[in-house]
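User: DNA-(apurinic or apyrimidinic site) lyase, Thermopolyspora flexuosa:
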Amino acid sequence: MPEGDAVYRTAARLRAALDGRPLVRSDFRVPRYATTDLSGRTVLTTVSYGKHLLTRIDGGLTVHTHLRMDGSWWIQPAGRRLPPGDVVRLVLANAERQAVGVRLGVVELLPTEHEDRVIGHLGPDLLGPNWDPEEAARRMRRRPEETIGEALLDQRNLAGIGTIWRAETLFLAGVSPWRPVGECTGLAEMVARTARLMKRAAEQGRGPVTTGDPRPGRELWVYGRDRRPCRRCGTAIARGEMGSRPYERLVFYCPVCQPW
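Assistant: Predicted structure for DNA-(apurinic or apyrimidinic site) lyase:
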């Protein structure tokens, strides 16, 4: 699933293609909105919140989309042939460009004034203007018995972290994914560091770099490196699963640098 920095970059691409231009075509390929037509309306902007995308249209409407596991937005010249099959869920096009939503996990239209219905339950957005690490830490502490690995992925605590940023956040903090939140110190500082690294990745237009070395294969400390030596101590990186079925998510960690 794309994480907060990738969704942030997607919002920027949608803004570049659609902002300030009237739509000449909208094609909702979901049954609920099959007859909806936004042609003639101007796209005001697209913003991200955590892993959610909000495309605001004049007339007080917002198109809410979520990429989930496999979704993406393709930006193409207007009129280009669409991908075959039933993978396209939404098309928004102006006279020059078209944005094609492929395999989107969520597509819905709602009044802009009611955006809180879809994002109001979320914690602070690590890339948002109102990011508050203290508030994120407070929310995590509400369930002190929960593991820190699960708490970081709970979007109700803080919005935008996925499995990559979880693994790297915990390694940099020297904390085991299975340590209970109530036994963790420095939670606000932990997530504040992640926000800084995520913002850098989002602004530089590339994937996460937590080691300081952007060369291919050297960007990350532990994520995706199971059975390979820890870059810090040489111990084999371990891999496990966290969460309840069917929502288990992979977790990577160093057993020595991140003692349980």
